[in-house]
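[Discussion] Sanity-checking designs against the backbone

I'm trying to build intuition for which residues belong where. Below is a structure token string of 541 positions. I'd appreciate it if someone posts a full sequence so I can compare it with mine line by line.
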């Protein structure tokens, strides 16, 4: 049964997919994006959040390095509320290869990346807890980026130009007629209804899952998922992004995000992109390497460990893993395989998502006789909330919560939340103290058609992502959010099961590091939920 149609259907709700939706919509092309779960639940939410200067690739992949520094500048401008302009530092410590420094400096210069040498004293003054075994340090224009926020702002921008998107809509078949894609079959993962969506062009932007989508049409696109494990610490260890100045390896990037720091990452080729497992051995490897930069790293409490898979494109006969290029590739299956109406994009990285979308759409648009030029680098993703509106809102929001909510919600949604706070004093209750999330904000997000569980609200508001990892807000959020959900998943049919699922997702990242301070906090959580509330959700199942 055909239930919907679009000129272009995009599969994949990560950074690449939402970037393509925005680009096509701004060119006036009717486009619909589908995602099998909630938006930004895969690779685009499971990485270190580094806005690359490109310096990491300056020696072995200068094309990727040039793309990174150019997009770094653009994203700082069009997505300023999603970027923290921390700057970055590349450091060598005793034992690192001194012969790597000059080729790195030459590569940065050739790629257009500005570097500035720092004296040891200047480096220590900037990041006081850097190793005393420091040999040299250079400043580069790295930054931190909120992948959740930037992806949703792309969706909001696309919607202003007519772009559409559906969550919990999974592709289960590609219907081909006379050598061309006619439609796709999808399943609604909320209602379990199956139906067809007609399209002229199908875009496979499923990231690490791109190979699986291609297989639905009997094709192969050589995507090699590479799993990376990361560690989140409970405080801001450094004010700058800190990279190890050596050949890229495991555990050599520290990225500050708000009040926490993320250390990453490993690189393990895996057969299934659904594998987001982590282990103590992986954590220990990252910690031992990280101690080379911050000698007292084990004094900081680990919040959680998480993993995601990179969508690396590996041509036949080429090396994968660390040696695979971080560039991207556009595959026109009409040219490569004789199937009209299907294109795949894979590879790349979050920093270059906008450029990937631009180059991809430059190939796609002419197929539809569309000659419009890309404008995604010229226009801000979303309008900024004015200082006057923020000032008005401060009488209702918790301390420090106004700017956070303004960047999370955007102009229209922020205005709606302020009206709710103004008219309903009970809605001013703070549900998540770590991230200053109010009841009014949870209500606004839970009421959206894309929200079906507390986990969906988390990705939009950062609920439960702070230092307590949902200890105090899980019960409150589940109790109130379910009142506003328009639909519910089968396994989130009531507030109790929803809370258990939410806590179990947090526990998944805590279990591999159950020792020391983390173990003490875990026991507190277990006591709260199992002893005080008699709920078997305060420990891993």
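Best answer:
Here's mine. Compare freely.
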């Amino acid at each position: 049964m055909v239930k919907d149609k679009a000129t272009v259907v995009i599969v994949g709700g990560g950074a690449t997919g939402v970037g393509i939706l925005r680009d096509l919509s701004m060119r006036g092309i009717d486009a619909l994006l589908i995602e099998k779960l909630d938006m930004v639940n895969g690779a685009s939410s499971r990485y270190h959040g580094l806005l690359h200067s490109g310096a990491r690739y300056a020696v072995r992949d200068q094309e990727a390095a040039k793309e990174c520094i150019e997009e770094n500048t653009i994203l700082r401008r069009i997505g300023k509320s999603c970027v923290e302009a921390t700057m970055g530092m590349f450091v060598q410590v005793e034992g690192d290869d001194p012969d790597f420094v000059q080729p790195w400096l030459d590569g940065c210069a050739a790629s257009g990346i500005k570097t500035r040498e720092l004296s040891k004293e200047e480096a220590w003054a900037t990041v006081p807890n850097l190793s005393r075994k420091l040999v040299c340090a250079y400043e580069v224009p790295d930054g931190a980026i909120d992948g959740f926020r930037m992806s949703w702002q792309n969706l909001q921008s696309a919607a202003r130009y007519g772009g559409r998107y559906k969550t919990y809509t999974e592709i289960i078949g590609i219907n081909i007629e006379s050598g061309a894609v006619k439609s796709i079959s999808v399943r609604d993962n909320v209602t379990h209804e199956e139906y067809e969506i007609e399209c002229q062009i199908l875009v496979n932007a499923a990231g690490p899952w791109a190979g699986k989508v291609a297989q639905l049409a009997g094709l192969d696109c050589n995507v090699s998922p590479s799993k990376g494990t990361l560690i989140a610490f409970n405080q801001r260890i450094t004010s700058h992004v800190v990279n190890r100045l050596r050949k890229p390896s495991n555990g050599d990037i520290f990225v500050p995000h708000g009040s926490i720091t993320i250390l990453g990452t490993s690189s393990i080729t895996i057969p299934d992109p659904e594998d987001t497992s982590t282990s103590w051995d992986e954590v220990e490897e990252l910690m031992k390497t990280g101690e080379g930069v911050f000698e007292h790293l084990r004094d900081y409490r680990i919040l959680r460990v998480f993993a995601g898979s990179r969508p690396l494109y590996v041509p036949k006969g080429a090396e994968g893993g660390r040696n695979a290029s971080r560039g991207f590739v556009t595959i026109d299956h009409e040219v490569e395989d004789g199937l009209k109406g299907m294109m795949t994009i894979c590879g790349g990285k979050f920093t270059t998502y906008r450029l990937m979308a631009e180059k991809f759409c430059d190939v796609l648009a002419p197929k539809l006789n569309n000659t419009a030029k890309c404008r995604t680098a010229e226009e801000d993703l979303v309008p900024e909330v004015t200082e006057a509106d923020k000032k008005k809102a401060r009488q209702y929001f918790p301390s420090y919560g106004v700017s956070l909510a303004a960047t999370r919600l955007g102009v229209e949604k922020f205005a709606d939340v302020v009206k709710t706070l103004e008219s309903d004093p009970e809605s001013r209750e703070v549900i998540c103290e770590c991230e200053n999330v109010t009841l009014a904000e949870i209500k606004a997000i839970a009421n959206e058609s894309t929200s079906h569980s507390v986990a969906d609200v988390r990705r939009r508001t950062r609920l439960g992502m702070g230092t307590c990892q949902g200890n105090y807000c899980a019960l409150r959020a589940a109790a109130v959010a379910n009142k506003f959900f328009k639909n519910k998943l089968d396994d989130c049919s009531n507030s109790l099961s929803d809370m258990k699922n939410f806590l179990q997702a947090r526990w998944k990242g805590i279990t591999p590091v159950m020792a020391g301070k983390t173990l003490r906090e875990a026991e507190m959580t277990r006591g709260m939920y199992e002893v005080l509330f008699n709920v078997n959700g305060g420990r891993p199942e």
